[in-house]
Write a structure and sequence with these properties.
The protein has 14 helices and 13 strands. With 421 residues, the protein is of the alpha/beta class. It has two domains: 139 residues, Alpha-Beta Complex (Aspartate Aminotransferase, domain 1); 241 residues, Type I PLP-dependent aspartate aminotransferase-like (Major domain) (Aspartate Aminotransferase, domain 2), CATH 3.40.640.10. It has a seven-stranded mixed beta sheet with strand order 2-8-7-6-5-3-4, sandwiched between helices. Strand 5, helix 9 and strand 6 form a beta-alpha-beta unit.
């Protein structure tokens, strides 16, 4: 499609948007004047669905009404509550229900997965990660190496973009895996990079890693609800993600976890165990030895926090209605329009460092500011934009398909242009 840098064109696109009704299903933060902010920060925290409050209140009411009996008699019984989320979450990440569970938080799940899938032995002791990975991921893998008595300075391989470039070239990823593969125990990448928005080819990386005998996992925090992950077909051994970004489940909410079906019945796979991962038929006999549930549910430790899950359930219902493929189709167009109007500003103080190809990026554009001038970010914030600043020099904006409009994006570009003058 040929874009036009006008408000009329943006409104025309919004009028043709089959997902436009979902915008009214979210609360937008408002300025003192009562005007809503232009919210472009769904890659940090998604907006609250209007149905979330009622979903949580329902569980509070059932707790008040039933007490402990709410595990069996609540409108949505608490005992199997996590199962109410499984199919919808599996649809979003492209997996089978036996491969997906909502539990814990992202970094906790990452550690649990590395307990099982990082198994250094002999000369195969290294972990491959992005140099510019999200800090929590780097802390996690470094601590796992130390736990095994390995020095991160020697056993952590970090993928870097070439000098003067912001994105990691696919051929460079392949070269590192082929050259270092026999020493790599685990490849653990962020499938959509938090800083640049670069979306890696998980299937190709997994195939390369497995061909070299490596275990492969992904942090999908910036992918879940944003891009079509197709985790089952991509084939990694595991993946983890949070639900408070594009999945709109609320601050600090639970994470998700994927373990491929090929590991579903391997009871000998080492894991940290807890009672909620035990055979459901004998869970309450208490004195039985650990008998893992087939599939990823066996990695559960504790009974789930219902109030947090209620918020996730409310959001997932919207995703089921919208459809992840439809959301992704809009995201490609919306982000491309954003790129078009931002580049139309024609100011050498800024440049977009996210991939040009919409299929190689998520719903995010990273705008690099010359001379790391955070004052520009402060100005657009004061003008009514909620975005995100990342040191040393990047403004991240996330035009989110579920609730952002083409008009949002156009107005953002005009505010940015004004502040650059």
């Amino acid at each position: 499609m040929e874009f036009q840098n006008t408000l009329e064109f943006a409104r025309k696109m919004d009028g043709q948007d089959p997902l436009r009704k979902f915008r009214s299903k979210f609360y937008f933060p408002k300025r003192e004047s009562g005007e809503p902010y232009i919210y472009l920060c769904g890659n940090s925290l998604g907006l609250q669905p209007i149905t979330t409050e009622a979903a949580i209140l329902q569980e509070l009411e059932d707790w008040k009404k039933y007490g402990v009996e709410g595990h069996f008699h609540a409108k949505h019984p608490w005992m199997p509550y996590h199962e109410f989320l499984t199919q919808a979450m599996a649809n979003i990440v492209g997996a089978k229900p036996i491969e997906v569970v909502v539990m814990n938080t992202l970094s906790v799940n990452l550690h649990l997965m590395m307990v099982s899938f990082f198994r250094p032995k002999g000369t195969r002791t290294k972990i491959l990660i992005e140099f510019d990975a999200f800090p929590s991921d780097k802390y996690a893998v470094e601590s796992q190496l130390k736990f095994h008595g390995l020095d991160p300075n020697e056993h952590l391989i970090q993928l870097k973009a070439r000098e003067g470039e912001s994105l990691i070239r696919e051929e460079d990823i392949e070269q590192v895996i082929k050259e270092e593969g026999e020493s790599i125990a685990l490849i653990m990448l962020g499938n959509t990079n938090y800083y640049t928005g670069q979306f890696f080819d998980m299937q190709r990386i997994t195939e390369l890693g497995h061909s070299m005998g490596c275990t492969v996992g992904f942090d999908c925090a910036h992918g879940a609800g944003n891009v079509e992950l197709n985790l089952h077909d991509a084939g990694p051994d595991f993946a983890v993600w949070c639900s408070y970004k594009y999945l709109n489940s609320g601050p600090g909410s639970l994470g998700g976890c994927f373990v491929h079906e090929r590991h579903a019945h391997n009871k000998d796979l080492n894991r940290f165990a807890g009672w909620w991962g035990h055979n459901k038929d004998t869970r309450f006999k208490m004195r039985d030895g650990f008998d893992p549930i087939p599939g990823v549910e066996s990695w559960q430790l504790s009974n789930p926090p219902i109030l947090s899950m209620a918020a996730i359930k409310a959001s997932l219902e919207l995703f089921e209605e919208a459809g992840i493929s439809n959301l992704r189709k809009k995201a490609r167009s919306l982000t491309s329009f954003c790129e078009f109007v931002v580049e139309g500003i024609c100011n050498d103080r800024i440049q977009i460092i996210s991939p040009k190809d919409p299929d190689k990026r998520g719903s995010q554009l990273s705008i690099q500011v010359k001379d790391a001038d955070k004052a520009l970010f402060d100005k657009i914030s004061e003008a009514g934009v909620i975005a995100d600043w990342r040191e040393p020099d990047v403004i991240r904006i996330a035009p989110t398909a579920m609730y952002n409009s083409y008009e949002d994006v156009f107005h953002f570009s005009q505010l940015l242009k004004k502040q650059l003058i």
